[in-house]
Design a protein that fits this description.
Rossmann fold; alpha+beta; Four Helix Bundle (Hemerythrin (Met), subunit A); five-stranded mixed β-sheet; five-stranded antiparallel β-sheet; globular; 842 residues; Heat Shock Protein 90; 22 helices
Length: 842
């Protein structure tokens, strides 16, 4: 009886427990099913939004350049004048270069003539390449259409995958005069797609042509299928580009989508099991609460990830049309405008530049946090950097009745640091001080040398001097309870009035990370209501010390002072080659085509001729045959410079009697080794050994009527001290680092040249003086120091001191020596280098 009662007593609780468990299980299963359906729908929406963003980004990238190209052509057409490819280069080179530098989705641009030859590019190694057989070029020749996206091709230079996006450049009559093509970076969109798929490890985003050829892929796999998860019931979204023949497809395996909620589902079932053992309702409620909590946390994390991705994407999205807007503003400012129109356009440009600063701050911070921002140290004038920052904010400070003072040592040398990033830090400090200081003073203090509190060392353990910059103000200061947040992102911490200044709150966070990237320290002191001082200390070696140790080409030694001729139809190649060769101790003349090369080779003794093979008109092969047929030049060694595949021309090099060859870009050590191996030729049979028949000689000049040397001297003194165009061309050709190295070597020779010039007045130094004039003319001319190059040419051609026609008291030898030494001193001052040349004066 007791047992029977016991069993009867247990039946109802057990039945109740089973019923509650079954009902609870059904409810949980329904809840999970609803959650999975919602998750799949949300994933479809997110994939669609992602593809929409990428599609719009593709279209805006295309429109930005399309607007630039068509605006230039339309402007020329509206003027009624015909357009040629030279006009187009002149109108667009600077804008294109700046646009490409600021548009990471475009890597390289090329301007192609109507015969298929690349005549301009931001990659000098591509100039002269024949692309007439490429499909995009043939398409524009047969049907001059704009905005043509070709299928991926393989670069002939690097064997890399290239996606050409091209425009036809047509004249007012519709005839084709050239083609502009850019390398549409598939890798850039690969990275964007990869970043946008981080939420799902197995997600795939592909951009493809209509025939399903892959343009970009989140996995970087260009052989992938557009339907990689066929048969797995994937979650799929599709979009089509409005302006380009591309479709975008995103897929995620359904299992991967549901795996996002896998852990949460497990927790629910564990909670359900515990409920069946203990109190079903209570444990189920706790499990449900835990499920909801975890779901909210995961969604918060997901939202933060999506916001970060969207923030980066928006920054790029803003930058693309912003670059186009600034480029078009520059074009408009070159037109004839009314005063009011010009003011409007300048206001647009200023607003655009302000916006670009904000966008760059966002992108810089992202790069710093990912470790992708690289410093670029160069010779930097810290004095100019600081004064420029003070001048930039002087007007704004004046409006607040605030003065800006600068304390800089007179003997502060040029330093080897990243001047651009240092300027960014200083401007930020001064900007903040200006915003929060009224009726007060801002003081910028600079010091350089050993710091007792901070020590820096280079890779060899040698101590480096510290550059310390302090920016102090008498403004509102920073409240003590806010000071710990100063270098955090989005912090705005000053004491502000009712309408205090606003900002992004990124500036000081960027300053801190930039300073640390430069190996330095940053800090501040502040008293609320009294003012603030921000400071940085960074290792900053003197540029002269750095350049004496990093000059790579100084390790290359020329064993013979050879007289060389460089033949190349590209002016930048000629400048680069002559600068390098003369810096290595050679004499280097240049010729712009084959005809000039043959003429100069007959008139001047050359120990070797460096000959470009692919030249218009008289090719390198023709020049070689001509020189070998002339007795006076038959034995001159010929060295071929070529960008062609050596396997295809090696036999021709032997047939045309070349001594050797080098592939572009030239390896200078290999060239020196090749020149050192040449035998020294006998010069006794040379009719004319004048070493000055070089680029500076005008072939059309009449040698029978030489100009008066004093007239040439006066004209030389009227020339500008520096030809900035030549300097920029050289930097574009060989880069900032190589140009700075050549400049450092040039500076080393200036004082000795000044001393030789003075001594030459009393004692003829003969060949040493002639060689010094020749070298100074070549190096100063190649580096853009126009006045010194012209004076050196006059002294070399007509002797020194000048005596012919000396009928003016202001051109006696001592006066001209003073003018020469002043030019040398001014040149060195322009380089921020202390000059010894004045010591040569009596």
């Amino acid at each position: 009886m007791p047992k029977r009662i016991l069993r009867a007593s247990l039946v109802l609780p057990l039945v109740t427990l089973v019923a509650v468990g079954a009902i609870s299980g059904l409810g949980i299963a329904q809840l999970i099913n609803q959650h999975e359906r919602a998750l799949i729908f949300e994933t479809e929406q997110r994939l669609g939004t992602t593809l929409g963003i990428m599609s719009e980004h593709l279209d805006q990238s295309f429109r930005a350049l399309d607007t630039l190209v068509t605006s230039v052509v339309s402007a020329k057409a509206a003027s009624g004048s015909s357009l040629d490819i030279t006009d187009f280069i002149t109108e667009t080179h600077t804008i294109l270069k700046r646009s490409i530098d600021h548009l990471p989705q475009f890597k390289t641009y090329v301007l192609i003539s109507d015969n298929g030859i690349i005549i301009s590019s931001n990659n000098i190694n591509l100039i002269g390449l024949d692309v007439s057989d490429r499909n995009y070029f043939r398409t524009h020749r047969t049907d001059p259409t704009n905005g043509y996206l070709d299928k991926p091709i393989t670069s002939r230079r690097t064997a890399r995958r290239v996606v050409p996006l091209s425009w036809a450049i047509t004249n007012t009559d519709g005839s084709l005069i050239g083609v502009l093509a850019v390398n549409f970076s598939a890798e850039y969109f690969d990275d964007i797609a990869a970043n946008l798929t981080e939420a799902y490890s197995d997600a795939s985003i592909s951009i493809a042509y209509s025939d399903k050829t892959i343009f970009a892929n989140s996995n970087g796999d260009y052989s992938a299928s557009l339907d990689p998860y066929s048969g797995q019931n994937p979650v799929t979204a599709m979009r089509t580009s409005n302006d380009l023949p591309l479709q975008l497809v995103a897929q995620v395996p359904r299992a991967a989508v549901l795996a996002v909620s896998g852990n949460k589902t497990s927790v629910i079932w564990v909670a359900y099991t515990l409920t069946m053992i203990f109190l079903t309702i209570m444990v189920l409620g706790m499990g449900r609460a835990l499920y909801i909590t975890r779901l909210a946390r995961d969604r918060a994390r997901e939202t933060e990830t999506r916001q970060t991705q969207m923030f980066s994407m928006i920054s790029h999205e803003i930058k693309t049309p912003l670059t186009g807007m600034l480029g078009l503003s520059d074009l408009l400012l070159k037109q004839e405008l009314t005063e009011q129109q010009r003011d409007y356009v300048q206001s647009i440009a200023r607003a655009g530049k302000d916006m670009r600063v904000i966008v760059n701050d966002v992108l810089d911070l992202g790069k710093l946090e990912r470790g992708q921002l690289r410093l670029q140290p160069t010779i930097s004038d810290v004095s100019s950097i600081v004064r420029d920052a003070a001048d930039l904010y002087a007007s704004q400070a004046s409006q607040n009745n605030t003065s800006i003072a600068v304390d800089i040592p007179d003997d502060l040398p040029t330093l080897y640091i990243d001047g651009h990033r240092l300027a960014q830090i200083v401007r930020n400090f001064v900007s903040n001080a200006t915003k929060f200081t009224t009726d007060g003073e801002i003081r910028i203090t600079v010091s350089h040398g050993r710091d007792l509190n901070t020590s820096f060392a280079d890779d060899k353990g040698e101590e480096l001097p510290a550059l310390t910059i302090r920016v102090s103000d008498t403004g509102t200061g920073i409240p003590e309870d806010k000071q710990r947040y100063v270098f955090e992102r989005y912090s705005q911490f000053h004491v502000q009035q009712e309408e205090g200044p606003d900002g992004t709150g990124l500036g000081l966070a960027i300053c801190k990370q930039l300073t640390e990237a430069m190996g330095g320290t940053i800090g501040f002191t502040s008293t609320s209501g009294k003012g603030t001082t921000f400071w940085i200390k960074i290792p900053a070696p003197e540029s002269s010390r750095i350049y004496s140790s990093i000059n790579d080409i100084s390790e290359v030694v020329s064993e013979q002072a050879l007289n060389l001729l460089v033949v190349d139809d590209n002016s930048l190649n000629r400048k680069m080659a002559s600068a390098y060769l003369e810096n290595l101790g050679y004499r280097a003349d240049t010729a712009e085509n084959g005809e000039v090369a043959v003429e100069r080779a007959q008139a001047v003794h050359y120990d070797a001729i460096l000959l470009d093979i692919n030249m218009p008109g008289m090719s390198g092969w023709d020049v070689a045959d001509k020189l070998k047929s002339i007795p006076a030049t038959a034995d001159v060694p010929l060295i071929a410079l070529t960008a062609s595949n050596l396997d295809t021309i090696e036999e021709k090099l032997s047939t045309h009697h070349f001594t050797g060859y080098l592939e572009k870009p030239v390896n200078w050590k290999q060239l020196v080794d090749m020149l050192n191996a040449l035998p020294v030729r006998d010069r006794t049979d040379v009719v004319d050994d004048d070493p000055m028949l070089m680029t500076s000689i005008d072939p059309a000049a009449n040698p029978t009527t030489p100009a008066d040397p004093l007239t040439l001297w006066r004209e030389a003194m009227e020339m500008p001290l520096i030809d900035t165009a030549i300097q920029q061309e050289l930097r574009d050709a060989i880069g900032d680092a190589a140009t700075d190295k050549l400049t450092a070597r040039f500076v080393e020779r200036l004082d000795n040249f000044a001393l030789l010039a003075r001594n030459q007045l009393t004692a003829d130094a003969g060949e040493e003086w002639e060689t010094a004039c020749h070298d100074m003319k070549g190096m100063s001319g190649s580096l853009g120091f126009a006045r010194l190059a012209a004076l050196s040419a006059v002294m070399h051609d007509h002797g020194w001191p000048l005596t012919a026609g000396a009928d003016s008291n202001d051109h006696d030898p001592e006066t001209m020596l003073e003018q020469l030494l002043t030019t040398i001193s001014d040149t060195m001052a322009a380089l921020n280098t202390p000059s010894e040349s004045k010591r040569a004066l009596p």
